[in-house]
Write a structure and sequence with these properties.
Elements lengths: L4 H10 L9 H17 L4 E21 L3 E3 L2 E2 L11 E9 L13 E4 L4 H9 L4 E6 L18 H4 L6 E5 H9 L4 E22 L4 E11 L9 H20 L4 E8 L7 H9 L7 E7 L7 E8 L2 H14 L4 E4 L6 H6 L4 E8 L18 H19 L12 H10 L2 H6 L1
Parallel strand pairs: 4-5, 5-6, 6-7, 9-10, 9-11, 11-14, 12-13
Antiparallel strand pairs: 1-2, 1-8, 3-7, 4-8, 8-10, 12-14
The chain binds zinc ion.
Zinc ion (ZN) binds next to helix 6.
Length: 420
Amino acid sequence: MDIKGKRIYDTLKKMNYIRLSTTEGEQKGAKVIADEIRDIGLEPSFEAFKVPCYEIIKVKLEITEPIYMEIEAKGYGYSGNSAKDGIEADFVYVESAEDIDLIGVEGKIVMVSSMGYEVYERLAKAKVAGFIAPSGDYFDDPKKTDLDERMLRKGHTDYGQIPGVCIRMKDAVKIIKASPVKARITLEQKEEEGDSGNILTQVIGTKYPDEVIVYTAHYDSVVFSKGMYDNASGSAILLELLRYFVKNPPLRTVRFIWCGSEERGLFGSKYYVKDHEEELKQIRLCINVDLAGPVIGRDTAIVIAEDKLCHMIEYMYKEVGHPMSLRHDIYSSDCIPFADKGIPAVNFVRYGAPGAVSCHTRNDVLEPISAKSLENTTRFIAQFSNRVVNAYMFPVEKKIPDDLVSKIDKYLRKKQLKDD
Ligand SMILES: [Zn+2]
């Protein structure tokens, strides 16, 4: 089997820069992929779409009483603007934002212990004036770590905008120890839309051209991160699989989609399923690769399909001698919009062991990743692909088990948004 780890690793090197959604870095990453596709002998197509993006013009967090402190802060994108001179209000620490924490918080600036959709929803309903959310680890060295940049998504802003800031955990502890009474948040930002896109190509099946297996991997990264592990690795693995299918023509059509703006909320895959609604009938399975390459780690398949597919993969890894773990569960990546349309999916992931690799930080770099590890994972995906893409009869039923359907609905916050 002509699968070469070195080739995959060399593609990672070409993508070794920050590829944040809607930025030049993301476009540069897309160009690398398009050039590689041409090099393989196929024509890439690019499907552009718009994604929310923002620019913070001014952000400031001050504790104004009983003592004055100015705290390092990043503004939450899409959380709106404060008044020009800021919002000054009583400060309250609401911890987990349960009902008991939220008595009398209307019009106040609240600090939470961590932020999520549910916490935001409760704050919005309690009509707070502003929020402060800590991030990172108390022991982070400010010289060696970046203060996170976060933005509110549609699931948040459906409840309205509350100007908010993100601070370091160490500062959050410092603030609470000082028993603050009043705080001021100043936030000015431009909220707009930027350009992103998917890169696509395919190899038409020689026998069943209308039965399609889709391969997905996102090529964008988060802010501060070169995203070698997350997910230049998956993008490069898809290119190697494409090379394999060009040399070994498949019985069924294999379509490759490198998705943009996954990290901002699965925009690329959501756009694809929306814009190609008619073609979804033909798609039998989605194979998504997100996170691969750590030298120390564990290959894992996360299956969003009937459990027979779990058993098949389990028998197969034993048969071919590829140690791995299996989960019958959903996975937060580009497989979700496909699974939401009833298309079964398998995610191939090589999780780094704790501490072996870093994700969503400036430390997601090339060094803890090896060509050999990338090759091992890709080889197994190619072997698995051979079984299903070239099967005498397509073996995977086009159905998502009910328990996973409810998990997907919950993940996409369908019920919450409908109830309100
Ligand atoms: Zn990822």
